[in-house]
Specification:
5-stranded mixed beta sheet; 10 strands; D-Maltodextrin-Binding Protein, domain 2; alpha/beta; 41% helix; 10 helices
Length: 251
Amino acid sequence: MALKVFLLRVIFLTLFGIPSIKAEPVRELQIAVAANFRSAAEVLGQEFTRRSGVQVQNSYASTGKFTAQILYGAPYDIFLAADTKSVEFLISRGKIKQGSQFVYAQGALVLVCPEKLTCNSMGLQNSSGSLAIANPTHAPYGKAARSYLESQNLWESRQQNIVTGENIGQTFQFFISGNSDFALVAYSQVIDWHLQNKRLVFMTVPQKSYPAILQSAGLIHDKPAAREYLAFLRSKSAKEIIHSFGYTTEN
């Protein structure tokens, strides 16, 4: 009898199926991050995932490159730019949600130098060595580098010795790999290098010699996880992470 009941159950389940249990979809964010903010963004992403369960996929490039990609429909949810103008431009084109933008960090420019040379504008002026900067056409830190060089009357005289990186990450690599003697890079990159117990000779460039590097965030796709991330980015704990990489933030 028991065997008969068992067989009937098997036949019933075969005919009518076993109710399926649908797994919760994995929540995920695609974030376009300016190259200078890479190390900070990695730590922020890990902390946000720990708190929310949302998986964060960061992509890194120059702000100008991302601006073009987003304009033509690249599937990012959030843009962490290295300036404010790019976000404002994308808002004007309807690619970033109006009112979502805010300054999440202010960056600083530094000059990194060979160990044996005095690390200041005079040392740069007196050396014939190559200088790496990010492309000033589309990289905010490149624009800041050009402004600084112009303030020191070095822009024209250094033209033949300038090595141009696609973004600030590539610019830093030029210096680290020995493909340039000097470099104008983000302070955050030097901080990250020092956190790895590696030392660099550097000078903080006076902020009055270049426009403030205000970095804006903007919401591309209006979904709950993206709004959660932007709210987290404004939190005290997120700001502490941002500060640890050499940035300042608004109160």
